[in-house]
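User: Assemble these into one structure.

Assistant: Restating your components, then the assembled model:
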Amino acid sequence: MIRNAAILFLGIVVIVICLPAAAVSIGRPPSPRIEPEAEEEPEPAPEPESIKIRFYRTDLDEVVTMDLEEYLVGVVLAEMPSSFEMEALKAQAVAARTYTLKRSRLMGGQGCDNSPEPADICSDSTHCQAWLDPQKKAMDSSAAEADHDLARVRAAVEATAGEVIVYEGHLIEAVYHSTCGGRTESSQAIWSGGPTPYLQDLICPYCSHSPYYRRETLISYETLGEALLKDVAIPAATMAQLPLAVLEETPGGRVGILQVSESKFEGKEIRTLLGLPSTAFTWEHREDGLLFKTHGHGHGVGLCQYGADGAAASGKNYRQILSFYYPGTDIIFTK
Ligand SMILES: [Zn+2]
Ligand SMILES: [Zn+2]
């Protein structure tokens, strides 16, 4: 009897203590199984924030915010024939990116003062850099031609994305021009300020295929008199013997100061007044006017665009091209 009572007591203890514990255990979520560590897909690195610029579109008279790399497609499209060698297009893309960032207020630049509201750069080629709306390009050309040109230019910009030119760690003034005509010009011949080490004149053997390599422009004595001698009455008969003399040459061997009769002009002034392609000129008196013989097209400083094309055709890559025209510089990535 006592034995039976003990068994009954034990049975009750088991029911009272163990059942609730079992119930609690059943109510718990199953403990997570410890799996062998699976190789997790690495999180994709966040895309670096693209650089935005404030761009004054002179065609719309409007300042727009634009992705720098997208903007550069329009610059390369406008500034260089898209049929140029791919390495030349890449050199142009890196020069244009550097030129833009050097001006941008984001990088401490002065911005563009041609705009009605604060902007980094404008699309006036005589003020900042030319730019062509890729959509307009598509409208002006056949679809196949526009696609082909745009694809080449886009490839050049993408292949060099983020790359800029620096001298001693600072962005350079990456100026460029169409054709130097055989010798580039030093920056101090065109702009005020002392010499810039990476913008000194050099012999360029690569641009002789340019249509501007050698040009002749005949300016009638009448036009010459109107443009240069407004206040000086020179009898038409003596214009044919009009005395001209180069008083000063630039470091790049171009016309620095020209004396015309009693007046003195800077070479770049003569270029503007007479609409000559460059300040690298000589002249001959002809019966009906002065025949100007010019070398090249543009100010002649920095990268020679036709030269870049010629250098690329001779096997140079864009880095070699840029270090030739901007000696002593390096290419780095912007952050
Ligand atoms: Zn501007
Ligand atoms: Zn050249």
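The mean pLDDT is 86.
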